[in-house]
Amino acid sequence: MASCQGSGEGTDAREQNLHQQWREGAERIADVGQWSSTFVPDEALLGGPIMCRSIKTLHNFEPPATDEEVRASSLQFVRKLSGFTRPAKANEAAFDRAVDQVAQAVRELLDTLVTKAPARDRDAEASKASARRAARFPASGAQRSG
After folding, report:
1. Which residues share a beta bridge with 61?
2. Partners of 120 in the beta sheet?
3. Structural domain boundaries in the chain
4. Cα angle at 20 between 15 and 25, to 5 degrees?
């Protein structure tokens, strides 16, 4: 099973349950896209690369993504690629430099992307995600925020 550095070793019980549900009944899931913010099945199941579940879409939001959000996503990306949650002292400078370079590239990308779609409202998207989470995890959906 794939996991994301920074979210603990391996996968949590909820993600393991989702992996099992996917394996047992992928045909029952009408829209795999609805899972993308919290879960992406194993690479072998989708025939393509998997993505860290902590990396969020930053494009086309109002207000625009903050430098902190860009940096957090860049950190998760570098963690995923390097396989390190925290690098050893010997690798710390290279790790930090990579995060800075990725953050700069992401900021440049976000600043130059164009779309005709209206900007998405963060609060509305958070409410939709919360509703999807509550539908997937009825017992824990009401307890979890944001």
Report:
1. 120
2. 61
3. 55-115
4. 125
100 is written with which tokens?
A: 């800075």
Q: Is residue 62 within 8 Å of residue 125, measured between CB atoms?
A: no
Give how far Cα 107 sits from Cα of 10, 12, 34, 62, 116, Å. Answer: 30, 31, 26, 15, 20
Q: Cis (ω within 30 of 0) for the bond into 63?
A: yes
Secondary structure E strands in the chain: 61-62, 120-121
Grouping H, G, I as helix, E, B as strand and the rest as coil, residue 62 is: strand
- Looking up tokens 């396989």 gives 83
* Eight-class DSSP state of 64: P
* Tens-digit pLDDT profile for residues 97-107: 999 999 999 99
Of 64, 76, 66, the C-alpha closest to 115 is 64
CA distance 23 to 11: 16
Per-residue pLDDT of 24-65, as tens digits, reads: 554 443 344 444 433 444 444 444 444 456 678 899 988 899
Tokens 């896209």, residue located: 33
